[in-house]
Design a protein that fits this description.
The structure is a single chain. By secondary structure, this protein is α+β, with helices and mostly antiparallel strands. The chain has two domains: 157 residues, Ribosomal Protein S5, domain 2; 119 residues, GHMP kinase, C-terminal domain (Alpha-Beta Plaits, 2-Layer Sandwich), CATH 3.30.70.890. 30% of the residues lie in helices and 30% in strands. The strands form two sheets. Strands 1, 2, 3, 4, 5, 6, 8 and 12 form an eight-stranded mixed beta sheet that branches. Strands 9-10-7-11 form a four-stranded antiparallel beta sheet. Helix 1 links the parallel strand 3 and strand 4. The termini are close together. The C terminus is likely disordered.
């Protein structure tokens, strides 16, 4: 195989709870993670010249080891002593630093690409184990679909897909550091926690409204103070007919779940009139039964 093209799906957190701060400085989490159909595109090609070369449509992104794509390629190429090279063309559509795991998903797709291009024979579980060295979200981005994530996010249990619905995303034109959010989170002072167990039951019962009612993200207790627009966007989505809306990850992207696509479209148009909005898009979920190792998402050239 000489070339491969892969989609790297974004994720949202349907529920995000922080249980405690660990002695190593990380936090123990309990989250429901969900892939969505907003994606980047990676086109990867084998080269005779050694090394990893990369280009992207966003000029401010690094194309060296500061990029998770390069690091994930290097991880596998070093382990298997690959002497050929690879060229990666990354077409970004997932906003950067948005709470949507764009960088982690790109890294996951790159690992799939190296595995296929060089016929390494690694299983999905093999890749997920390797991916933890790149980032805590990478194993989920490899697995995709719907999952309970625990530990620092790397302990995954696959869950049933939610019923089909429409996902409206809106990102304020703001940068929020994940490190800042977790550093300033006072876990002991949290008064409310999302009901993750209720969400799991709702998924098993295919009850979208119960799933939405149990949504919550404790990191909003930090981010709302530094980016009040998150709250404004959430309220606009709820007023527009969303059955649930909240921030994804450490933010600042807000998503809303809609049963009615026309209501979602009307809300999308209203969102586009807001000042200071970087992105607003309507998409849907990437369901668990579609998530098997990217096979249905890839195109190859021999």
């Amino acid at each position: 195989m000489k070339e491969i093209s892969l989609k790297a799906c974004a994720k949202i957190n349907l529920g995000l709870d922080v249980l405690r701060r660990r002695e190593d400085g990380y936090h123990d989490l309990r989250m429901i993670m969900q892939s969505i159909r907003l994606f980047d595109r990676l086109t990867m090609r084998r080269t005779k010249a050694e090394g990893i070369r990369m280009k992207t449509n966003l000029p401010f992104l690094p194309v060296d080891r500061d990029n998770l794509v390069v690091r994930s390629c290097q991880l596998l190429m070093d382990e298997f002593n690959i002497r050929e090279g690879v060229f990666v063309d990354l077409e970004k559509h997932i906003p950067v630093a948005a709470g949507l795991a764009g960088g982690s998903s790109d890294a996951a797709a790159a690992m799939i690409g190296i595995n296929r291009l060089f016929d390494l024979g690694l299983s999905l579980q093999d890749l997920m184990s390797q991916g933890t060295a790149i980032g805590a979200d990478v194993p989920f981005c490899l697995m995709r679909g719907t999952a309970l994530a625990e530990g620092i996010g790397e302990q995954l249990t696959r869950l049933p897909s939610p019923p089909r619905c429409h996902v409206l995303l809106a990102k304020p034109d703001a940068h929020i550091s994940t490190k800042y959010v977790y550093t300033h989170l006072d876990v002991g002072a949290l008064k409310e926690h999302p009901d993750i167990d209720a969400q799991i039951r709702a998924l098993k019962n295919r009850d979208l409204r119960a799933l939405a009612q149990a949504m919550g993200n404790v990191l909003e207790t930090v981010t709302l103070d530094i980016c009040p627009q998150i709250g404004k966007i959430r309220e606009l989505m709820l007023q527009g007919g969303a059955i649930g809306a909240m921030m994804s990850g450490s933010g600042p992207t807000v998503f809303g779940l809609f049963e009615d696509r026309e209501a979602a479209r009307r809300t999308l148009e209203e969102l586009k009139t807001l000042e200071g909005l970087q992105m607003a898009v309507l998409t849907d979920m990437f369901l668990t039964d579609e998530s098997s190792t990217h096979c249905r998402e890839q195109q190859t050239k021999e």
